Amino acid sequence: MRHALRLAVVFALAAPLYAQQVTFDRILHGDREPQNWLSYSGTLMNQRYSPLAQITAANVKNLQQQWIWQAKSLEKFEATPLVVDGIMYTVQAPNDAVALDAATGRVFWTYAYTPAPEGRPCCGRVNRGLAILGDTLYMGTIDAHLIAIDAKTGKAIWNTEVAKASARYSITSSPTIVKDKVIIGTGGGDGPIRGYIAAFDAKTGKEAWRFYTIPAPGEPGNDTWSGDSWKTGGVGVWNAGAYDPDTNLVYFGTGNPAPDWDGSKRLGDNLYSDSVVALDADTGQLKWHYQFTPHDELDYDATQVPLLADVQWQGTPRKVMLWANRNGVMYALDRVTGEFLKGKPFVKTNWLDGFDAKGRPHQVKFPTPEGTLVHPHVHGGINWAPPAFSPRTGLFYVASWENSGIIAVQGQFPRVMSSNSQQTAMGQTTLVPFYNDDTEPFGVVRAYDPKTLDRVWEFKMSDITWGGTLATAGDVVFSGGREGYFLALDARTGKLLWRASVGGQVNAGAMSYAVNGRQYVAIAAGNALFSYALPAP
Amino acid sequence: MKFTRWLVTALLASGLGVFAPRTAAAQHETAADLLDGERAFKNSCANCHGPDGDVIPGIDLGRGRFRRTMTDEELVRIIRTGIPNTPMPASQMTVEQAQKIVAYLRSRASTVRGGALAGDPLRGKSAFDRATASGGCTSCHRVGTSGSRTGPDLTDVGSRRSTVELERALVDPGADVAPGNRTYRVVLKDGTTVTGRLLGHDTFSVQLLDTKEQLRSFAKPDLREQGFLPSPMPRSNLTPQEVADVVSYLSTLRGQ
Predict the structure, then answer these.
(1) What is the ipTM, given to two decimal places?
(2) Active-site annotation holds for A299
(3) Class of domain A2-533
(4) Which residue has the higher pLDDT, B130 or A197?
(5) Would you call B63 exposed, middle or buried from its count of C-beta atoms within 10 A (0-12, 13-18, 19+)?
(6) Which residues of B are less than 8 Å from A101 in CB distance?
(7) Which one of A280, A308, A399, B138 is least enclosed by Cβ atoms within 10 Å?
(8) Which residue of A has its CA nearest to B216?
């Protein structure tokens, strides 16, 4: 602890006076400069862990709000900011990039982008954040463009149309930087698209490779789609990827097949929907995949970010991938080979009763016209909200929800068979969870042991949450939810240590950074971005 | 003599007409007449022709360029009756009002330095690059991914600025500096001086892009002095033709 604190302070104070180019090496080793936050989840392992330790479980109760920045947007604020040497970069939804003074929240510049009006996918005109390489920022847009922006001036450098918004493609995720490429997937998979992940030259915006999330005829896996259903089978990509330099693989989660709730028109497993795909980062070639939910009819898409960790697995060091999936099951996979190591429900789950030797789930509940009780319902156990992992505690932190008692109906939007008739479409800020009685729906932050996937502790909230988690070297886990509280929990016990009423839903993951040796924690809530720190000495 | 010959050549090359020699009547307008003419132009003409009169292709009223040579009388008639089968409408103006507009435009055309010269964008790019090679334009300005960010970015300046504005920025750089391009200086209490492009300021803080291309933010209580500086853009020593060429080149810069 003391060592971590010292280390953090040394790093923070060692911040260069002038911003240097953000090389890929800096991004890859983001943990070496904890004052900065150089990618969506801090590093390309997506652990959303800050090595800063000025704010601790002992003193977090003293946190004070330092500034608020109000977005001029009524869309949900889902972006995680980047911080590079004292400058914060975020996105005002749908697609205005903004540079702020990370210590004061004052604006340096705003790059305003007006997306095409047809860029209106399911679940809001949102954006989850920027990526940076060199002195260029990268932003995916809701009308499926990828834009390079000068980080110093906010001027656009290039603008590449990734896909046609008129064909219902979109982009909501933060781009993933690997070497000299910007990699991003297309959202919009609840519509009749054929999703893909593509890499673009960071300097020019020219496409370098493309991987379709639905194989074409003649390619392995195309026979998992009946007839021509592969042409419009959806399988969007809604979130950032992860990268492991040892394997040179980039990992992405994929979305559900379309149409969402009617599998009769797309018989088969529908590869590579609801999967994680491991692609060669230089060529986009598929190296392995694991499908969490074959032939999905419940909208259980793998919209989450892959979280990479190195753990002792049954006594042996192993490079694993941890995944709390929308289908209510938590997974540990070998990220080198794709081997299924373990799967275990992390919320109430009844659609499967186990796995075969290769990890294929044995499904026992199927939606029917007359109705079937399915847990979890289409909202899942979690959506896109990012999880965290602390190398100090060795725990995996997930903000999720319990939400049950729903009947899914084949070929239609799931119909309510309970007393709650106010439910709304997922992704909306007015979302009302599905439930049969008032005890069923609740949000919860839980810690899990990645070696066993056993629950270690939990912190329950009255309402559900679309917020993520952040773990820090001060042994604090930050999270929040729809109730409009930003929470600090003890990373080892889950005890509530501090809270702030932020007056709006927390629909984003928190992040931490330092300026002039002072640690801050930032969270988007409602339509604003908040930053907290301990009182100035 | 030389200039006249050059002018004729330039006009022939450009294919544009200009104001015909001025009539005796039109030479007796007063300053008030010109002011009236300017107001009338801005109220009635600028909506379509633009504030500098150069929005419609082939016509640059600010420099007295038309699709063919025009006398004052012809211009007055067109202002009053319009041009059939074109978007140029008839107006309710009296002859006197129309004459004032013509007088204003003539006055403006004669005072825009080099305004009657046609520029060559290729020569302009060469002049721009030559200036760059000797530490000129791109030591402050940026085009695409080349050059400095300390001055206004020129990547799409042709779509944001009229030729008149571009010319003015070259020959009289301090005359009209856009709010986002103003130069600001802060002196910290330890004497450190930082200058840069002012991005924002409020009661308590100042935000700059400094001359080292770093985004900087200062708390005002930490400052000993602060304030605007004149534009660091030097007056050009280009010839009128070179100015026209550079303006022509800058007009082609329209981003992606």
Answers:
(1) 0.85
(2) yes
(3) mainly beta
(4) A197
(5) buried
(6) 205, 207, 215, 217
(7) A280
(8) A101
